[in-house]
Amino acid sequence: MTRVLVVWCPDWPATAVGVDAATAGAVVVQGQVAACTAAARAEGVRRGQRLRDAQRRCPELVVRERDLDAEGRLFETVVEAVAALTPRVEAVRPGLCAIPASGPARFYGGEEALRVLVQDTVVEAGHDCGSGVADGLFAAELAARAGQGGVVVPEGGAAAFLAPYPLSVLDRPELADLLRRLGIKTLGDFAALPSGHVAGRFGADGALAHRMARGEEPRPLAPVKGAEDLTVRGDFDPPAERSERVVFAAKRLAGELHETLAAGGFACVRLEVAAGFADGHVLRRLWRHDGLSALAVAERVRWQLSAHQPAGQVGDSEQVWGGVTWLELAPDQLVPDEGRQEGLWGRTSVTDRIARAADRVQALLGHHGITRPVLVGGRGPGERVVRVPVGDLPPAGLPEGPWPGRVTGPAPAVVLAAPPDAELVDADGEPVVVSARCEVSAPPAVLALRGRPAPITGWTGPWPADERWWDPGRSRRRARFQVTTDDGAAYLLAVEGGQWHIEAVYD
Questions:
Q1: DSSP letter string, 133-182
Q2: Fewer CB under 10 Å: which end of the chain, C or N?
C-alpha cells in the first residue's frame, strides 16, 4: 500500500465565496452544506441535505452560489505552500490535496514530523487545515479530519482505523441506507463481508466501496511503463501573454491526448500539467482526472495560470505574468478503459457541428455555462433529470430503481424549478385532504392558482411516495395527482404536509 499524506481545508469552499463559516452559521452550496458551525450541526444540518430541509432546521443559514473558478484559483495558494516542501502534489479537488509520504517522511525525519510541518506551512499561508497520513487516499483523508488537526495511522492499520466510522463517509447515500437496513452500520461491519458476495449483491460500485472500507486502494493500480511517451506539448512563439491563448491550446492538447489513449485502450486517472514561462520558471501540478473532458482539463489549466502572479500585482486577471512559452500534458497514471456505449448504427451522441457550437459557448460562458439533461431514476419528474456539463460524463453511482409511487407517462412538458402553491377544493369548497392511508376526502372540483379558480374536468391519483421512512431527518411523505381544467390545461399536483403545489405542467 502507498503511504499518502492528505491536506484537508475544512473552510472550503466557504473561503471562495467570502463567508466566514465560524460566525455565519453555515454555508449551503448547490444543496450541499459546505461548512457549518457546531450550532448548525446541533440543529441537524448535514452535508447532502436539501436546501429547504437545511433552512428549516437552521433559519440562520447563509446561502451562496458556488464559484468553481474562485475555489480552484484560491486553493492554488495551498498547493504552492505544500509544493515548497515536496514537488509531487496532487490536487484531488479544491480543498483537498495529497502527496506520497514515504520519500518526504525520510527526508524530514518521520511521518509525524512531516505531517506537522505541512500543516504549519499551510496555516502560515493563511488557511486552516488538517493533515493526516495513512495507507491510501481514502484513509488518509479521514485521518486528516480526525482529532485536533489530523493523525498518523500506522502502516497496515488502515482497516482498524476505518472500522468504527459510519457508512456515510463512503459518500454513497443509497448504498449506506440499504446497508443500514440490512443491519450493517459501520465500515468494519461492511469490510467483514465476503468480497465475492458484495460484488454479486451490490455491483461494481459496491465492490469499490468495499475495498475502501477494508483500507485497500479503490482500484488496483495499472500503470503503463512502455517506451512510448504519451506527453503532448504545445509551444508559443511569441510567448502567450494572456491565459485564453493557453487555455485554448490546453483544450486542443487534451483532445489529442484522449484520442491517443483511446486508441491504446487506456484512460488517464491522474494528469500532470506543466507550464514553462519566459523567465525560465516551470509550474507543475498534478490533477485527478477521473472522467474529465478536454474542457475540464482546460479549466484546471486556467486555475493553475491564474494563481501564478507575483504578490501585489493588480490589473487584467487574464494576463499571464512573464508569458508562457510552452505547455505540456503528461498522463501520470493509466488504467484500462472500461469504454462507453455509442448510439446504434455507428451514430455518436452529438454531431461534430453541435460539438463545435457547444465548445464555443462554453469558451464564452465557462465550463458549466452549457449543460445537457441526463435521465436518471426517481419518482417525481424533477428528480429524473440531472444537468451535466457538455463534454463531461454523467455522474457515477446514481441510484437505480424500482421506484414505487413513480408517476406514469406521459412526461410533463415543463417541470417548475420553484413549484407555486395552489389550492384544491371539493364541490362544497372544502380543501381536499389525503389521509395516511392515501384516501381522498372528496373528489377535487376546483383548482385555484394565484387566486384564480379553474373548474376541474378530470383527475387521477393519488400516487403516494413515502421516502426514507427509516431516517427521520430525511424522510418525506407526499402524494401526486394529475388534473385537467376547463381551460384545456393539465397539471401534476403534489401535496406535502397539507400544502398543495403545482410540480409540473403538461403540454
A1: EEESHHHHHHHHHSTTT--BPPTT-HHHHHTTSBGGGGS-HHHHHHHHHT
A2: C
Confidence of residue 223 (pLDDT cuts 50, 70, 90): very low
Number of domains in the chain: 5
Query: How far apart are the C-alpha atoms of 377 and 398, rounded to whole Å?
Result: 8
Question: Which residue type does 232 have?
Answer: V
439, exposed or middle or buried, with CB in 10 Å at 0-12, 13-18, 19+?
A: exposed
Using an 8 Å Cβ cutoff, are 9 and 141 in contact?
A: no
Please choose, from the candidates 67, 139, 153, 158, the residue with its C-alpha nearest in 3D space to the C-alpha of residue 111: 153
Identify whether residues 418 and 481 lie together within a single domain.
yes
Is there a single domain that holds both residue 332 and residue 348? no
Please provide residue 341's backbone torsions phi and psi, each rounded to the nearest 5 degrees. Answer: -90, 120
DSSP single-letter state for residue 94:
T
The cell for 374 is 441526463
pLDDT, tens digit (0-9, with 9 covering 90-100), for 328-371: 998 877 777 765 544 444 544 455 566 656 666 665 666 667 78
Burial pattern 278-317, b for ≥16 Cβ within 10 A else e, equals: beeeebbbbbbbeebbbbbbbbbbbbbbbbbbeeeeeeee
DSSP 455-475: EEEEEEEEEEEEE-TT-TTT-
Q: Structural domain of residue 60, as residue ranges?
A: 17-66
H or E element, residue 251: helix 243-264
- Check whether the bond before 410 is cis (ω within 30° of 0): yes
Cα distance between the two ends of the chain: 57
161: cell is 482505523
Name the 3-class secondary structure at 272.
strand
pTM above 0.85? no
